[in-house]
Write a structure and sequence with these properties.
The protein contains five helices and six strands, in the order βαβαββαβαβα. The protein is of the alpha/beta class. Strands 1, 2, 3, 4, 5 and 6 form a six-stranded mixed beta sheet that branches. It is globular, with a radius of gyration of 16 Å.
Length: 202
Amino acid sequence: MDADITAFTISCSLKSSPAESSSELLGRQIGEELSKLGVEGGSARAVDHEILAGVEADMGEGDEWPALRQKVLDADILVFVTPTWMGQPSSIAQRVLERLDAELSETDDEGRPILFDKVALVGVVGNEDGAHHIVGILFQALNDVGFTIPAQGCVYWNGEAMQTTDYKDLDATPEAVSSAMSTAVSGAVHLARSLRNQGYPA
């Protein structure tokens, strides 16, 4: 069990709470898998917060990103979930990535970027193609700012092209998604524990 390892999930749905959201559902399911391994943590739907445009850690009055940022920094694992729109991550996901860009200039006491000891998992849902493309974008961006990506560290679901069924409308979670989720989560926890015990050199 890894009670000392924590996670924080950011869902980048375009739908504000309490509207049902496939991204929110996938993020919650990943959180449940993490909980089975003793990893606890919180979550946020980014669209519910006023995240101002910019690439600074704090964009000033009215900016609610600093509170979310602190939760990211406090967690060992970031779970980043986005829907697919026009084959791309949501605009909310892009906004969050842009705000994480500020961490490139932040370092710890040993001069390492402060996200070097953090792990990132990615989740993507959509009833159109684009999951692999989006995962590639997110993996590269998250790795750029310092997150480490575990082996097979993504979970995605694509519905049938040109149909309207959403992930949240499925009667049950597909076995392939469940299996990918289990693999991604166990790898992320293992990696987070390893980085906790021995981080990257300065």
